[in-house]
Every structure is written in C-alpha cells, then in structure tokens.
UniProtKB/TrEMBL annotation:
Pfam families: SNase (PF00565). This is Thermonuclease family protein. Residues 30-150 form the TNase-like domain. Residues 1-25 form the signal peptide. Keywords: Signal.
C-alpha cells in the first residue's frame, strides 16, 4: 500500500512537471479571474483584491471635464452602474508596470470595453485592442455621445497616442 501511494505521488509529480514543460515564453499566459468587482475608474476594477486594467480601451483621467461635466467620474459611474453586483469574468493576459492584471472582461457575456466605448465613455486604443472597439467608437463619435460631445475639449486625452 505504501508503494502505491509513493507511485501515485510520483505520477502526480510527473504530470505536474509535464504541464510546465509545454509552455513557452512566446505564448501569452491566459488566466481567468472572476468575481464581484469594485470600480476604481472607467478602465480599472478590482476583483478579490487584485487591480485589473481593462484592456483595449481608455477613459478620461482624473480631473477631465467636458464643460461642467466631470467625465472621469461619469465614466466610472457608468461602469459601476453597468456592472452592478453581477459577476465579472476576466481573461488575464499579463500585468502592467503598476502590477495590475491586464484583462478583457465581461459581464453576462457582454464585453465591458465594448459597452464603455459604445456608450461614449471610452475610446478604442488600437495599440492594445487591434481595433476591436473601432466601430463602437465611430458610432459614439457620430452620435456625439458623452466624451464625444461638442463640450469636450480637443485635449481631453492629454498627450496619449492612440495609434
């Protein structure tokens, strides 16, 4: 009986070791993170104590205003209203320099980035999205929705490059 236990543990060790052999540095590690989220701002949430930078889109930074509207705050509120107390599911692809997970996340099957960009609270960031939200941004711009309102200044996005 002792021999079988040792054999089973030995086999388990072999299986675990075999799992790590197949991965390479060229393959991005995808990890799932899910739970109820707290909203930090329009493109950052926290799940189980882990900050998550929502990938592929950007929202206005602290202090950004369009006329009398604090669009930084309104983007965060829009995200919070959308998520509510529902479970957020994220596919994590890495971490940024601030140790935040980088992820594409959804709520009930709806991509959060798609929601934020289509409602005019964010913009597509092709460098990180490969244009995933370009159509949503074009429609929001055409409609003059939220950050695409005529009251928003041309320098709303600061010195960031969205190429």
């Amino acid at each position: 009986m002792t021999i079988k236990r040792v054999g089973a543990f030995g086999m388990l060790g072999f299986v675990i070791a075999g799992c790590s052999v197949g991965s390479t540095a060229a393959e991005p590690a995808i990890e799932e993170l899910a739970g109820v989220a707290s909203v930090i701002d329009g493109d950052t949430i926290e799940i189980h104590g882990k900050r998550v930078r929502l990938s592929g889109y950007d929202t206005p930074e602290r202090g950004a205003r369009c006329g009398d509207v604090n669009v930084y705050q309104q983007a965060a509120l829009a995200l919070s209203d959308f998520i509510g107390s529902r479970t957020v599911t994220c596919d994590v692809s890495g971490e940024d320099r601030w140790d935040r997970a980088i992820a594409v996340c959804d709520v009930a099957g709806v991509d959060i980035g798609e929601f934020m960009v289509s409602t005019g609270w964010g913009r597509d960031w092709p460098r990180y999205s490969d244009g995933r939200y370009a159509d949503e941004e074009a429609r929001a711009r055409e409609a003059g929705a939220n950050v695409w309102s005529p009251t928003c200044p041309a320098d709303l996005w600061g010195d960031r490059s969205y190429d």
